[in-house]
Amino acid sequence: MVDPCYTPTGMAAEPLRFPNLVTGFDRSPEHAARAALYTRYTQYEWNQNSIKNYNESDAKRNFSERVRNDIMRMLRETDEIGTQGQRDSGRRIGERITDTTFWRNEVSIEMERLVSTCEKLNDTRRQLERAIAGIEGPLHIVQECLYHREKRQGLEQVHDAVEQSLLKEVAILRECQDKFRNMLEKVRQQSKNCRATQHELESDMRNKEYSLGIDNMCHQLNNFSKGLQFYAGIERYDPSVCDTERWAAASAATLQRSQSERAKAVQMLSDAENLVNVSATEIWDQWSNTNSSFTRRIAETIEIKNKLQLHLHKVQQEMFDVEKTLELLNKAIEDKLQPLRVAHTRLQARTNRPHLEKCRDEAQNRLVKECCDLQETMETLRSKIATAEGTHQTLLGVRAGLEADLRNKSTTLFIDRDQCMGLRRGYPVTAAIKA
């Protein structure tokens, strides 16, 4: 068991044994005698055998040399094929790296532009939201003005130019709000589309970056690189999903979609800016027109109020004159009472004359005529008093109407000049929309 060449019994082969002329005599005497007395080959055969060996050696050597030369040529060719193949593969990988880098740069530039456009869309979206919220202030003010003007009294509740301007301003503000909301919805939808396109660009750029990393690593590999391994059957495995043309067409299509979405976004930005400017101008113009209408209406109201005050002063003066006239008429009637008493007393006294002395003389006729004239005069004065009193009552009604109209005008002036214009002076319309 210690012998390293130990072989179990029954498994060892019999060793070769060559014939021995000395020892073979004992085993086969006839054969041993023949071998000692007779030769096997002649000298010629021996020489020919040597020549044959020489020729065969030369032939085999020449054949071996040709084979060796072929092998060396094949080695050089295979080395050249391997080197050329590796060089061509490296060159193709380098070209692929150049193409991928080009498209990666194009995608990166387009993504930067798209991100900038998305930021502008977000700014526009915030501006539209501020504009919608900013219109609430002017709209509230206009509605407050309409609410305050509902407090006008009497005939002052007229559908004047101011109210028409206020209603038109409310319509314009609400219309602008609707336009802003529609544009805001479009901007939000376009922002979503741009973000989706940006996601595609980012995914494409990540894939190209990953592919560039792999290709750069492959381009740097050589025969002395570490980690080289054999992968059986890898050359028969084709993981490709498209060819070069489809790959380039896909990258170009992605860029084209991004450029199209960006062009739509730029157009939408321009439309939104124009809408904001036009709406702000329209709102400001209507705001100014309403203020001008308020100013004209206030001036008209002040003028009418001044005229009413003048007429009221004249009416009051006329009432004062009528009252003085009434006093004069009453005094005139009182002044007629004493002469009438005298005339009545005279007539009463003359009724006491005896017999024929009671004649209708001129004195009697004159006394009677005096009494009639005084009574007629007093009746006329009383009718004039009634007429003056009626005129006085009429003037009282006119004065009450003028005073009520003046109160209404004062209320209207307070509403238009103090309340409405006080609200409208302190609100910057365009600043609220364009902020």
UniProtKB/TrEMBL annotation:
Principal subcellular localization: cytoplasm
Cellular component GO terms held in the UniProt record: axoneme; microtubule cytoskeleton; nucleus
Listed under GO biological process in this entry are: cilium assembly; cilium movement involved in cell motility
- Highest rank taxon of the organism: Eukaryota
Q: Which UniProt keywords apply?
A: Cell projection, Cilium, Cytoplasm, Flagellum
Location in or out of the cell = Cytoplasm, Cytoskeleton, Cilium axoneme
Family, as annotated: Belongs to the tektin family.
Give the PANTHER family listed for this entry. Answer: TEKTIN
Name under which the protein is recorded: Tektin
* Organism the protein comes from: Pieris brassicae (White butterfly)
